[in-house]
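Observation: inputs received (chain + flavin-adenine dinucleotide).
Thought: call the complex predictor directly.
Action: predict_structure
Action Input:
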Amino acid sequence: MGSYLRPSDLSEALSALSRGGLAVIAGGTDFYPARVDRAVPEDVLDISGLSELRRIKIMPRYVRIGAGVTWSDLIHADLPRSFDGLKLAAREIGGIQIQNTATIIGNVCNASPAADSLPNLVALDAEVELSSAEGRRQIRVADFVTGNRKTLRRPDELVTALLVPRGLAEARSSFLKLGARRYLVISIAMVAVVLEADHGKAKAARIAVGACSAMAKRLTELEQALAGRPLRGLGAAVLPAHLDLLSPIDDVRASAGYRQEAALILVRRALDVVGAAA
Ligand SMILES: Cc1cc2nc3c(=O)[nH]c(=O)nc-3n(C[C@H](O)[C@H](O)[C@H](O)COP(=O)(O)OP(=O)(O)OC[C@H]3O[C@@H](n4cnc5c(N)ncnc54)[C@H](O)[C@@H]3O)c2cc1C
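Observation:
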């Protein structure tokens, strides 16, 4: 069994990471279930004691979500309406015990194709802030996750925050998830929509589909096709070809064909919901 370190100071955590060989945990709700029935061999850095990271701050340009912020923290935070979609995702992550423990950034770093945060964060143009003993850098979430369980994080770095641009604060947003049942389920397909409106018409739409490719994908051709359209009945503008860039797989949860069809219906429904609310 490996060692266990739970610092209360960020610089201590970064200094430990710089020495190498540590596995980071936050809520541990992805980390430990992947290691059931065996001793944990890794040396673990538990960041749940870093109270400075358990904050959501409204900054001039960004909403800053720290690495310790749980799904429940997000649900209860007073945030611009562009966060409604991410809050809908939060309410569907596991059960309340999981929402109380699991972090949003843990969901991002775990980089599962079925991670419910990712379509929302990609649609919101969010960035991750990476910190190490050498300094900080920022990367768009869309670029940070490079594939199934793959990210650009170096072993000496901690993701310290998500930075969500405030420019979209007044945009409407929504999130729809399809699973084999209503709750406590891994997504078969999900969609996040962020819509800016102007005088009853769509000004700019950001639409991302998850669980239908290794990483959540923006439907950029559809986004362009929606600009200037009346908000009522936006869903009718979605054509199957707009989803051609997805690459769903067959697995125990659904076939690729079912996923592609489900994604089309979810995108149409999400646009109708958000168009009616804008
Ligand atoms: C019963 C159950 C139900 C679930 N339901 C859902 C669901 O509906 N939808 C869904 O998307 N997920 C679900 N999950 C998965 C999990 O709860 C989420 O992905 C959660 O947000 C992970 O957060 P965590 O803090 O627990 O991550 P952890 O398990 O602590 O970490 C996950 C990964 O991210 C890395 N990591 C964590 N924080 C950082 C950081 N700050 N910097 C660098 N690396 C970091 C860790 O090294 C690890 O590889 C479920 C899990 C369980 C057990």
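Thought: report the result.
Final Answer: The first strand starts at residue 4 and ends at 5. The pocket of flavin-adenine dinucleotide is lined by residues 23-31, 33, 47, 67, 92-94, 98, 102-103, 105-107, 109-110, 115-116, 153, 158-159 (CB under 6 Å).
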